[in-house]
Amino acid sequence: MNKELLKINHLAKRYHDKQGEIEAIQNITLSIKEKEFVAIVGPSGCGKSTLLSILTGLEEKSEGTITSTHSNLSFGYMLQKDSLFPWLTILDNCLIGLKVQGNLTDEKRKEVIQLLKKYGLEEFKDKYPKSLSGGMRQRVALIRTLATNPDILLLDEPFSSLDYISRLKLSDDIYQIIKEEGKTAIIVTHDIQEAIALADRVIVLTQRPATIKKEYKIHLTDKSTPFQNRKCKEFNDYYDAIWRDLNET
Ligand code: ADP
Ligand code: MG
Predict the structure, then answer these.
(1) Ligand nearest to the CA of 155
(2) Which residues in the chain belong to E strands, given as ranges?
């Protein structure tokens, strides 16, 4: 079994605004292993994005600890909207993270071009985001996230701005890229099927304040691509169980 990469212990988050205190996360304890693909599902507004924001350091935690076996564990964050810069070419968009870090070398640039090539985007490298479909833009966003070679990828509802067919296709593409690049990934979503189709493990959160309600290791006979996984015989049992978890009060 792969070794543990990240450990979250008794994490809590309270926001403070003019209306008072909002408790977003309560007592989340969770560990993630190397190369694991973990999905976190929970109702809208329960605290999923908050959890990812704390991991990347965009938000401060109120309580708890986040530790790693890795010194300087790095995160790559991919959002719901691709947030590509419209005035930059596809290649420059993919290089922006490296530039900001001051790590852009000729070698890195070549590696990124190689990634674009490998995943069928090379011919668009000098084009602008507006000439790409939503699914392609999200693939570019993933390559941009991979360019800085983060230890863990955090995906925040990466498919939710797309139509149904595109999201099925993009799930397969994103899954393939993450597996081929040997990455550890955490995806948050409110889509139960997406979670089961993609992940090795599904963590179910409660309504806000989010706590862990249940955890499922996903064992699918004939596990293959996310699209094909939806046809596995165990798929509906997981779906029903998680649906029940999410709809119990
Ligand atoms: P999810 O991603 O599961 O939809 P969020 O993590 O975005 O949920 O939000 C959880 C709760 O925290 C919501 O009630 C939201 O309104 C609140 N919240 C999120 N960000 C802030 C903030 N910066 N200040 C105050 N409240 C916030
Ligand atoms: Mg969110």
Answers:
(1) 2
(2) 4-17, 20-33, 37-41, 63-68, 75-78, 152-156, 184-189, 201-205, 212-217
Asked if residues 150 and 75 have their Cβ atoms less than 8 Å apart, the reply is yes
CB 96 within 8 A of CB 88: yes
Residues with CB under 5 A from ligand 2 (ion): 49
CA angle at 229 for the pair 194 and 201, rounded to the nearest 5°: 60
- Whether 79 is in the pocket of ligand 1, judged by its Cβ within 6 Å, is no
Q: Is 46 in the pocket of ligand 1 (CB under 6 A)?
A: yes
Residue % of the chain over a pLDDT of 70: 99
Question: Rounded to an integer, what distance in angstroms lies between the CA atom of residue 104 and that of residue 97?
Answer: 9
Average pLDDT, the chain: 94
pTM (two decimals) = 0.93
Q: What's the token pair of residue 11?
A: 């994490």
Ligand 1 atom closest to Cα of residue 44: 4
Q: How far is 192 from 176, CA to CA, in rounded Å?
A: 20
CA pair distance 138, 94, nearest whole angstrom: 12
Rounded to whole angstroms, the Cα distance separating 193 from 226 reads 9
* CB burial of residue 3 (10 Å; 0-12, 13-18, 19+): exposed
206 in ligand 1 pocket by Cβ < 6 Å?
A: no
Task: Tell me the per-residue pLDDT of 194-203, one tens digit each, with 9 for 90 and over.
Answer: 999 999 999 9
pLDDT category at 249 given cuts 50, 70, 90 is low
Nearest CA residue ID for atom 7, ligand 1: 49
- The pLDDT value given to residue 49: 94
